[in-house]
Amino acid sequence: MKKAQKRVGVLLDTTRSLGSTLELDRLIKMIMEAAKELLVADRCTLFLFDSQEKQLCAHIQGKDTDTVQEIRIPMGSGIAGYVFTSGESVNIPDAYKDSRFNPEVDRQTGYVTKNILCMPIKNISGECIGVTQMINRRGGPFGLDDEKILSSFSAQAAVAIEKSYLFKKTEDMRSYLQGILSSITNCVITLNDAMHMRTMNRNWFMNALGLNEATMMENPVTAWMTEENSALLKDILEVNSTRLQVYVSEYELKGPKSTTYINYQIMPIIGEKRGVVLILEDISSEKRAIMTLGRYMSPALAKQVMEEDGSQLGGTRKKVAIVFSDIRSFTKMSESMEPHEVVELLNHHFSDQVNAILAEQGILDKYIGDATMAVFGVPFVSPDDSIHACNAALRMQDSLKILNQTREMQGLRSISIGLGVNTGVVLSGNIGSTKRMEFSCIGDAVNLASRTEGLTKLYHVTILITEFTKAETNDNFITREVDWVIVTGKSQRVVIHELLGKKGDLLSDDLMDGLLLYKQGLELYRSRQFAKAITKFQKAIDIADDGPSKTLMDRCRRFIENPPEEDWDGVYICESK
C-alpha cells in the first residue's frame, strides 16, 4: 500500500515537473528519467513520430554511457512500430521469444533486452504521436500496476509533448516572421492597444525622429510623436479607433535634424489584442531625385521618369522637338555692365525660360553661355511635342516683353532674343565619360535647330521654325513662310517659317497687310523679278516695319547689280552660322 502511494506521489511530482519546460530535448530527457524511476526500469526509450520521414525517432544511451545515439526505425517496425500503428499496449516478459522484437537495436548498441513494456502516446484528439518503451524492469517482468502507472504517465507526457510542439511551431513561426521583417526594407512597427511600440524591424524611423527604442516602448505614441508630425499621429489614433486602414504618400516626416520623405500605411491588428501596424517606406532618395530632375523638367514628368524603367533614359533614337534660344549681342552688352548685373539679368531671363519649358512638358537640356537648349519628347515621346515646343517659344517671347518693360522702368537697357525650333530624330542618352557625364541629345536635328535660331538675326525676327516642325503642328499656329535656305554644313534646302502666334490670336491690320505684301514680294523674288519685289518689300517695311522684307530687299538690290546664275532656284545658301 505504501509502495503504491509512493508511486502515485512520484507520478504527481513528475507530472508537475513536466510542465516546467517547453524545450523538447530537455522534456524528452525528463520523461525518460521519470518513467525509469516510476517503473524501476533499467531503460526508457521515447519514440516520437517523424511525419515527414514516416519514421519513429528516439535518442538512446549507447555502449559508452556518456554518449547518446539517434535511433530511427520505420513506423511499423519492431515492438515500437507495432504499438504505434496498432495503438495497443504490449507487455513482453521475454523479448527474444517475441517475433515482433527487432534485435538489431541491441546489436547496434551492445545492450541486451530482457523484458519490455511498450505503450502508445496519444494526443488529446486520440492521434498517436509516439511510443514509450520501458526495458528491463529490475526484479522481474512488468506487471498490471506498471501498465496503469505508465498509461497515466504517458497521457501526461503527451500533453507536455504537444505543448512543446506548439511552442516550437510558435517559435519557428516567430523566427520566420522576424526573418521576413528583417528582409523587408520598409520599417514595420507594431503598437499595442495602449499605443506602446512592441516591435520594430528597422531603426531609420526611430533615428529620423531622434528617439531611442526604450522611449518608444515605455511610452505611448502620443508622448513621443512630435507636434510637427501631428497628421501621422492623428492617422494612427484614428485607425486604432475606427479599425479602418489608411495610406498616405509623400509625407514629410519632421525630425530634429532633417526631414524624411515617407509613404506610410497604417492597419489595425486583427484579433483580440487590439493595436495597429505601421508600414513606413523611406522615399527620400526618390524625392531628392525628383527634385533634381525637377530643375530640368516638370515635377509631373520627373515623377513619371522615376516610375518608369530607368533604362529608357539612355542611348535611344527618337523624334523630338528642339528649341534654341540666344540673347542677341549679349557679349557686347555685358561689357558695359557690372558682373553682378550680368548675373542678375541671366538669372531672371533663364528663370523665365525654364518656366516656359517646364510649363510645356519639356526639359532643359543645357545652358550654353547666354543660350539655352530645350528638348520636347525626352524621355517620353508625345505626338504634341512640336506643339509644346512652339508654345514654349511663344511663352519665352511673352515673358521677355514683361522683363523688358521692367528693365525700361528701371532705366535699364532692354534685351532681344532669337528662338529657333526644329523637329527631327536625335540620339538621346548619357554623353561624356565614365567619370563625368550628362544627359543630352545630339544629331543633325539639334544642329539644324541651332542654325535656325541663328537665322533669326539675319531675318530680323524673334522666332523661326523649320518646315519639319510646321508639318507636326498642323494649323495650331499662325506662321508665314520666310525663305528657302541651305544652312552651313548641309546640302539640302529647308523651308523656314516665322512663328507669329497661336491660332485665334488677333494680329494688327498693319501686320496682316505687311504679311500679304511680303508674300507677294517673295513670289516676285523667286521668279527673278527683283525690282517689282523691292516695291512690295518696301511697302511692307513702311506699313509694318517687316524684318524679313528688309533682308530680302537688300538681297534683291544685290541681285539687280549682280544677277544670280541661270540655274538659281531661289534658295539662299548661308555662309555663316
Short description:
With 577 residues, the chain is α+β, with helices and mostly antiparallel strands. Helices cover 45% and strands 26% of the residues.
What does this structure look like?
With 577 residues, the protein is α+β, with helices and mostly antiparallel strands. The chain folds into 4 domains: 2-174, 2-Layer Sandwich (Beta-Lactamase), CATH 3.30.450.40; 184-282, PAS domain (Beta-Lactamase, 2-Layer Sandwich); 289-505, 2-Layer Sandwich (Alpha-Beta Plaits), CATH 3.30.70; 506-577, no CATH class. It is 45% helix and 26% strand. The protein has 19 helices and 20 strands. It has helices at 2-18, 24-39, 78-86, 104-109, 144-183, 204-208, 213-218, 221-224, 230-242, 284-293, 299-307, 330-334, 339-359, 385-409, 444-459, 467-473, 509-526, 530-544, 547-561, and strands at residues 41-50, 55-61, 68-74, 90-92, 116-122, 128-137, 187-192, 197-200, 246-254, 259-268, 275-282, 316-327, 363-368, 371-376, 417-432, 437-442, 463-466, 477-486, 494-502, 572-573. Strands 12, 13, 14, 15, 16, 17, 18, 19 and 20 form a 9-stranded mixed beta sheet that branches. A 6-stranded antiparallel beta sheet has the order 3-2-1-6-5-4, with helices on both faces. Helix 1 (2-18) runs parallel beside helix 5, helix 2 runs antiparallel to helix 5 (144-183) and helix 17 packs antiparallel against helix 18. The chain is elongated. Residues 309-313 have low confidence and may be disordered.
